[in-house]
Amino acid sequence: MAEYSVFSLIQNALTGHKNWQRAWRDPEPKPSYDVVIVGGGGHGLATAFYLAKVHGIRNVAVLEKGWLGGGNTGRNTTIVRSNYMLDDNAHFYEKSMKLWENLSHELNFNVMFSQRGVLNLAHSDGQMDRFARRGNSMRLNGIDAELLDRKEVKRMIPYLNYSDEARFPIYGGLLQPRGGTARHDAVAWGLARGADRLGVDIIQNCEVTGFKRTGNRIEAVETSRGTIGCGKIGFAVAGNTGYLASKLGMKLPIESHVLQAFVSEPLKPLIDHVVTYGAGHFYLSQSDKGGLVFGGDLDMYNSYAQRGNMETIDHVMRGGIAMVPSLSRLRLLRHWGGIMDMSMDGSPIIGKSPIDNLYLNCGWCYGGFKATPGSGWVFAHTIAEDEPHPLNAGLRLDRFERGHILDEEATGPVPGHH
Amino acid sequence: MLYIDCPYCGKRAHEEFTYIGDATKKRPDGAEKNDPAWVDYVYTRDNPRGPHLELWHHGLGCREVVKVLRNILTHEILGAGRPADEIPLPETETKP
Fold it and tell me: In this predicted model, what pLDDT tens digit does every residue of A63-74 receive, in sequence order?
């Protein structure tokens, strides 16, 4: 398929844009593949892309039960950051950030990565101390971080509630200037096109319904489009990981929860950064179409339903209005829910499983989108080499039984607290 | 809104409750030295895509812990009772 460039754009403009070719093929599934990736979201597609590109494994299929990026890849709030404190998280997410910084070039597809800065607000002296600690940890790990005081935050972001009567006054914030947003659909499309150009078969409308096992191996997956043999198999199915694992008699340290997200009516440019409220859970940015994109907490009860409850919508709006009072006049355009695979320590799980040729990529909690390229990169390594890369060695499934949990928020094994 | 039939207070909106989690987990005996039993209790969850037994705390009501059977694929509440009660699956429900 042709390379996208300014020349191809001009050429197609001159012919009325009637000769663009499809961006990826729509192949029939082959009887078997060296590697089958279940889940055609960002993580599954990135895994296939890096398997083909970095490891030379091109006989790969990505099976997607619906359409590409129709799950959480199309449902998130598009925030990209690597502002983590614990080493195992920090190095992994920073790798992902570095891949983001070159992703549009690497894919020859504009993922509209915009490093507009991610600012976490602090509302007490204690919170400022915690942010100073996290910022110092980040800088020691080579990640950019700046601690801002109230005056600096006010100069940078004037529209927040700086009133002395605010229930949670703004003391300052921790800024990651390299953080930002990316266009989520473009990430799925760009990775799909990139993987397809390297020979990966992307098979949509293909739901995995069961597995054929021999001993401790999976020989084939049964799907709505027939049985497909697999040398190795990787799960990248986010909230449905527990469901697929249950078909294999496997139990995981994961609960599925619904997380809602929202977009307002479109506005002229107002919000230049990604801003998060520190006294509740609220994160806000503005899309290129002008809609304000924001979200908050989980609905807090287990769910596979992809829709949430009014009580949580109300709670999110209250948090938002406490942070940016002018939001109260806005109308909501849409809201939706996605199913989070909440791990019991709040950190992802990427690694081998108890089944010999099955690899797991799950436990993304609130934040799978930012990890998309990094997740695919280390997962491809884990599948190709049959062992984790040093960057995901700390994210293995067995960390729970070894006691090496990665609890960034130090809130204990309760998914709703992460 | 979900409506939970509290065995002490009657039908109440779920916003009066705080979700605790999986009701099928039994804390191992205090003398249990077996790590896998504790790992299973603390971290491992069935996470079924269907009927799920769970505990809710009725903090804005009777302040008792209530056991609820809820289909987590549809959010439909299939029964509620005290924590020690057996809550049977309605006949129309099949395990996924």
Answer: 999 999 899 999
List Cβ neighbours of A118 (8 Å cut-off, separation of 6 or more): A79, A81, A83, A175, A176, A179, A180, A273, A274, A276
B54 contacts A301? CB cut-off 8 A: yes
CB-nearest partner of A304 from B2, B15, B72: B72
Other beta carbons less than 10 A from residue A133's beta carbon: 12
Architecture of the domain whose range is B3-81: 2-Layer Sandwich (3.30)
Selection from A384, A393, A387, A347 nearest residue A37 by Cα? A384
- Whole-angstrom distance between the N-terminal and C-terminal Cα of chain A? 43
Answer whether A313 touches B (CB < 8 Å): no
Tokens 């003398």 appear where?
B31
pTM of the full structure: 0.96
Model ipTM?
0.94
Question: What is the third-level CATH fold of A118-179+255-343?
Answer: D-Amino Acid Oxidase; Chain A, domain 2 (3.30.9)
Residue of A302, A306, A316, A341 to mutate, testing the B interface (most B Cβ within 10 Å of its Cβ):
A302
Q: Does domain A28-110+183-254+345-417 have CATH number 3.10.310.30?
A: no
Do β-strands A79-80 and A32-38 pair in parallel, antiparallel, or remain unpaired? unpaired
Per-residue pLDDT tens digits for A275-308:
999 999 999 999 999 999 999 999 999 999 999 9
Kindly list the domain boundaries of chain A, sorted by start residue.
28-110+183-254+345-417, 118-179+255-343
What pLDDT does A4 receive? Answer: 95
pLDDT at B93: 62
Rounded to 5 degrees, φ, ψ at A318 are: -60, -40
